[in-house]
Amino acid sequence: MTIDDQIQLAVQYFRAGQYQDAKQLFQGIYKQAPEYIIPQIYLAQLAVLEGTGNAWIERLEALLREKPYLHEAYHILGLCYQQSRLLPQASHAFHQALGAFLSQSFVSAAAYPQPIKKTSTFDRPRAESLLWTTLAELKRQGIYAFATAGTLLGLERTGQLLDNDKDIDIGIDWQQMPAAIQALIALGWQETARSYGLINPRCFIHLTSGITMDVCGYGTELPSGETISGLWMDQVPFDWNRITYFPRFSLTPKCLLPEKYGI
After folding, report:
1. Phi, psi torsion values for 217, nearest 5 degrees
2. CATH class of 124-261
């Protein structure tokens, strides 16, 4: 099998989510032919998925000094910086990625991990049932979770989840996040993609159904008393996060479907 054939097979593994197979094959190619760019870019992307993107920062920086037109490498370098909490450097790399992309007369799809186009598989009735049973079980454990974001929009607008939705969104008291994570794991949920390096929201997949859920923490800002949420990272100044402000609110218990869902 030629190196090009090996690269093509490794890319197929990556796109199919067979990350360990892809990593093993790319590592062999990189060891055999370190001058090839595609294996380096994919290995860096795999490192980001594993939470070790910082190990590829120096190599990507060196690669871009040699080939400053690779928008794919700038983008993944930005992800590595972001994972390492180097947010100003990450922002600069993302801008460079955009500039390099726009300056090219064509888009090279060979080296960049391309998403697989899939039709929506969101099972609305099953997701709705899972939503209510999960909320009910959390409540039994003293965790007062509630529908939020797109899930709340669907329930308020149509009385059910939106047909074109892709996941469930629930909110909790930020201080209950550790307890909620433990409870959800016991209920058959697993944190996915390391929650993209965020401490809020946390991203889960239901191991039985494959349905995904974002758990959004809501806290109270002192001394204003306003409710806050958003996209938060640890180990960075808090004002670097995306902070969303809401008027102060409180929860009112409702029993909509007590017999069917045990609420």
Report:
1. -85, 140
2. alpha beta
pLDDT tens for the chain, 263 residues: list them.
Answer: 788 889 999 999 999 889 999 999 999 999 999 999 999 999 999 999 998 999 999 999 999 999 999 999 999 999 999 999 999 999 999 999 999 988 874 444 444 555 555 555 678 889 999 999 999 999 999 999 999 999 999 999 988 998 888 899 999 999 999 999 999 999 999 999 889 889 999 999 999 999 999 999 999 988 788 899 999 999 999 989 999 998 888 887 766 554 555 44
Ranges of CATH 1.25.40.10 domains, the chain: 3-103
Placement of tokens 């454990």 in the chain: 141
Q: Is the pTM above the cut of 0.90?
A: no
* Domain covering 3-103 assigned CATH 1.25.40.10 in the classification: yes
- Residue carrying structure tokens 């983008």: 75
